[in-house]
Amino acid sequence: MIDSENETGNIVTYEDDDNEEYGIEIKGKNVVKLNADKVLVKTPLLTTAQDLAGAINELFQGGSGETPADSDYEKWLSLPEPADNQAVFLVRAVEGYMSCSINAGLPYDYVEQAEGWSVDWGDGTIETFINWRTSASHTYATAGEYTVTFTNICGDNTYAVSSGTQWIMAKYGDNVYVDKVIGGTSGQKLSSEKYLRYVRLSPDTDFSENFFSSDYSLRKIEFNGTLSAVPGYCFYNCANLKEFDLSKCTSIGNYAFGYCYSLEKAQAPLCTQVGDSAFRYCYRLMETEFSESCTFGEKSFDYCYALYPKPDGSA
């Protein structure tokens, strides 16, 4: 049931009586509904005319306790630079949920060593573990933001994932990377935390399907490795992601960037295959580049209103 409606220019916005859904309609186009649990903060109905991209971006700004994007980025830059064998996380411990966990993975053929890795939890507590210990948890006495440093003492490649609190930002050294498999055939997401904003990954990081899926706050990724194939749904529903380096990419999977409302460029001159709905609902996408021999799946650029002409030849 529609409780309120507001029309500005060619945009009509809707809000239901329970504030559970928002809709945006461009005259003659579909209504886009955004469930409340995918919006970090409920915004008032639009009061000034703006294009669809601006309207979508408006819905996804801010969030509980969020700071402006520019200051977020400055905070990320100010994090300590990790050594090759380190990962640095910025986490937010909140009242009633202040436990942070670190998961570490090491090769199965390791022999037991006296030291394997350590964690500086950022509140004066430092712990060291023998190499076969694969996880550690810490509970903060006081709510706040803490810089957590993971160090792989034994020197071999391993991975580290922080979870539990609100994980905001991370930097990985060249020899510490994010594991991509968590058993069976399902891929592990980098983070299930919707607050993740900025991340720098090790060049060794491998990507699986759904790797960043639905990390709504993710804005920027620094990755100096070679990603020749973007797996399906890898960045699906990353509503605030503005850019990702595709210069070395040769294929992009189904829905890889679907619902990335803020994505502005897709420059992949070596790419020869784009999957179904790969860039669907990328409202702000304006610049693209693909190989002349590139093939495109169904609805690759569906609802990319700002993109003309579309690389796949669709209307």
Task: Give structural notes.
By secondary structure, the protein is mainly beta. It has three domains: 2-59, no CATH class; 70-201, Jelly Rolls, CATH 2.60.120; 226-315. It is 6% helix and 32% strand. It has two helices and 21 strands. The chain has helices spanning 52-59, 69-78; strands spanning 2-8, 11-16, 21-26, 31-35, 86-93, 99-105, 117-120, 126-129, 135-139, 144-152, 158-163, 166-172, 176-177, 198-201, 220-223, 229-230, 251-252, 265-268, 273-274, 287-290, 295-296. It has a seven-stranded mixed beta sheet, with helices on one face. A four-stranded antiparallel beta sheet has the order 1-2-3-4, covered by helices on one side. A four-stranded mixed beta sheet has the order 9-6-11-13, with no helix packed on it. The longest helix is centred in the first third of the chain and has 10 residues, at 69-78. The two termini are 32 Å apart. Mean pLDDT is 74; it is low at 1-11, 19-53, 58-69 and 180-188.
